[in-house]
Amino acid sequence: MAVPQVDVARARAFVLAHGGAVDVARMEGILGRTEPDRAVVRALERLQNSDGGFPVAAVARGAGAALGTTAAGGHHEGQDTIASGGRAGARGAADSGASSIAVTCQILAHLRDIPPLAGSPMASRAVAFLRRSQSVDGSWSAAQEGVDPALLTASAGYTLAVMEPDHPDPIVRAARWLRRTLADGAGDTRAEGTEHSREGGPGRVAALGSGSDRSAALFRAAAVWGHSGDAAAQDSAYALLEQRDLTAPEIAGWLATFVELGLAARHFALAFRLLGRLAGLQQTDGSWPVGEGSAVEATLAALRVFRGFRLVGE
């Protein structure tokens, strides 16, 4: 099988032409730069609230410029689906709204693209905010964000698995809640679009809303299940995801879970197929396509994956 090939030079030129300062800093971090621009770091620090979280206003309002959102771009990658429904609430430290679980997960993913920031005090405060926000039953739920709890819990649980793997309790509780909520629908393709799962409860996969929401919830939940040792639930979710016509950001988001949490030997062939699909979607201008959202974000997501699999150099 041929190794997937991508045009890094054109992708880089696309981000430089259409991205903001944080986008460029993330691209440089993905491609190997170890010292981020101090102005970018200060811009991100100003957006963090005193409780450690980041507000919806950071990506859904004018402050998007500080996060690298272009005028034509809109939202961000696979995670834009968990941020776009939010609304700002009480005043935060930056006078920009209440902290959002969804947006905090999103910005922590951005910080991981800039290696020194992934271990910074800013990231540690954000991770602590996520831990404190978890419910006793293992879920995350924030009605004011307009986000399905399954998608929110999969995103937050996945973020903790990546950022704090040595603190397993919140991850295990999230995995159990996701297993109860999603796994029956994930394991039975007939459950999608049906009224009830096999246990008689609501068909949660069917209830997740848009297709991109369902896919994002499943590949993040599957990553949490795999991290927690539930290979059966993970493989059932992967079987369902493979049947879907996934967008470039969804494929990149799924592959990123392998980069960040490790790739089991039984998934080597799956990862190779996904890499080939993603490489084939690169456009002539160097970008990756999106239905709704930012082509810059989709391009960064793809570069992150190919760099993570060591298929592109600096």
Automatic annotation (TrEMBL):
Read off the SUPFAM superfamilies from this record: Terpenoid cyclases/Protein prenyltransferases
Per its UniProt record, what InterPro entries does this chain match?
A: Terpenoid_cyclase/PrenylTrfase
Q: Where is this region: Disordered?
A: 70-90, 185-204
**Taxonomy, superkingdom:** Bacteria
Sequence ranges of Basic and acidic residues compositional bias: 187-201
Residues in coiled coil: none
What is the official name of this protein in its record?
Answer: Squalene cyclase C-terminal domain-containing protein
- Species: Symbiobacterium terraclitae
